[in-house]
Amino acid sequence: MNASPTVLVHAKGLRKEYGSGEGLVRALDAVDLDINRGEAVAVIGPSGCGKSTLLHLIGGLDRPSAGVLSVAGQRVDELSERALAHLRRDEIGFVFQAFHLMDELTAQENVELPALLAGCTPSEARARATALLEEVDLADRARHLPSMLSGGQRQRVAIARALANDPEIVLADEPTGNLDSASAFEVLGLLEGLHAKGLTLVIVTHDERIATTADRLISMRDGAFVDETRLTGGSRGNLSTFAEWERLS
Amino acid sequence: MQQEVVLAMLAKEPSHGYELRARLARALGPVAEGINEAQMYVTLTRLEKGGFVARLDAPTQRSDRKVYCLTPAGQERVTEWMSDVSWPRPDLAEFHMKLIAAAQGALADPVSLIDAQRRDLLRRLREVGRAVMEEEKDSNAALLLEGIVLRLQADLRWLQACEIAWTKRSTPQ
Q: Hey, where are the domains in chain B?
């Protein structure tokens, strides 16, 4: 189904429409996209440009109106609800702006939950969660409820949870949108570290600063891609151009 | 950057070029990469000719050990510079005219010029953003880099406005 095993996400003529007749909204208008394994892609654009819709389609949270979409070798546009739920659970990790942690569960329990739902034994789930909380540097907060954690810590728990079933790809929707700049750096650093270890990452954001941490940046407007920028591999610019001597008058 | 920066650094204490360059490097972090010692000596020599700094040491000293201090004229210049509110202007007018000339003279497609410029600014933003994350928090250099990030973001926002306007103009209604 995939042209090449290195292509993890493949979309062709992808459309998403809401409503009908006069009220028809084209949230996504014939988008073509390929994301390779191990790539970090940022999708940037103003609110309402369709970037979150794209993320929801890739993540199987929503169905396309038309077009081809395959993720990890499976045709999302053709899968049954049941098969789609399995794809979501096993291959995709989500990170949301508002964290979406379960308030009544501890950090540890939040991270264990996806593995338990996937059929792991409680002890497997516990071991996995412990290792992941270690990885996001929150081993000492495992027994805390989300309400006892800072925003940055909550998002790190959410990232650990996203990794619970060792997904092929992590999809992040404005992952730093609710964070102060120091916590945003923490979360960005963590995502970058995971990407450096080979994780495939899609970040949706309106913030160029966040977006430019990716390898490739796609700009969207009115449901379509308007530009694409490859950020890696180019010649290194020179920071010193920001401090040059003027002649003494 | 005005050469008054060097004068102002001498207000702390008389110093030689090597030390001044090191202080500048600490304050600017990676931004100081392009400012070498030779430029510092050229600047100091020029400031000496202008009467803004004077040599403190014996004239026989090795050139890299020349110690400079502020003269009263230099002192005065530093005071003026401190209260001067002129601000470095990013040259938006030049790029703006590039777009207009491109469209009027059919030299290039303004929208693709904007796209190329945007890509370049995005790559710069990536680089500065990385430099911020590598700097120690609360360092002088991190504060400067933060300012550069914000400025690039403002420029990118303007380019977005340009893109919307020029796309409208080039699409027949």
A: 4-83, 92-170
Check which CATH number belongs to the domain holding A128 and give it. Answer: 3.40.50.300
- Interface touch B1/A227, C-beta < 8 Å: no
pLDDT digits (tens, 9 = 90+) for B47-91: 999 999 999 876 666 666 789 999 999 999 999 999 888 877 778
pTM for this prediction: 0.83
pLDDT digits (tens, 9 = 90+) for A178-188: 999 889 988 99
User: Using 50, 70 and 90 to split pLDDT, how confident is the model at A14?
Assistant: very high
Secondary structure class of A142 (helix, strand, coil): coil
What is the CATH T-level fold of the domain B4-83, as seen in this structure? Arc Repressor Mutant, subunit A (1.10.10)
Q: Does A47 touch chain B (CB under 8 A)?
A: no
Closest approach of B64 to chain A, Cα-based (Å): 21
Reference A4, options A73, A93, A65; nearest CA is A73
Is residue A43 included in any domain, yes or no? yes
Cα end-to-end span (Å), chain B: 46
Cα–chain center distance at A129: 20
Contact A208, A130 (CB under 8 A): no
Q: A140, exposed or middle or buried, with CB in 10 Å at 0-12, 13-18, 19+?
A: exposed
In a domain, A10, yes or no: no
- Determine the pLDDT at residue A2: 44
Does B133 reach chain A within 8 Å, measured CB to CB? yes
Residues in contact with B37: Cβ distance below 8 Å, sequence separation at least 6, in sequence order: B17, B18, B21, B64
pLDDT in tens, A22-39: 888 899 999 999 999 999
Give every CB contact of residue B105 below 8 A, 6+ residues apart in sequence.
Answer: none
A183, A209, A230, best to mutate vs chain B, most B CBs in 10 Å: A209
User: Does residue B3 sit at the A interface (CB-CB below 8 Å)?
Assistant: yes
**Is residue A212 included in any domain, yes or no?**
yes
Inter-chain CB proximity A231 and B153 less than 8 Å: no
Domain total for chain A? 1
Any domain includes A102: yes
Domain that holds residue A122: 38-63+80-231
pLDDT for B64 equals: 61
**H helix runs in B11-135, sequence order:** 17-28, 37-49, 72-83, 92-104, 110-134
Between B43, B123, B149, which is nearest A234 by CB?
Answer: B123
Nearest to A84 by CA among A96, A70, A101, A65: A70
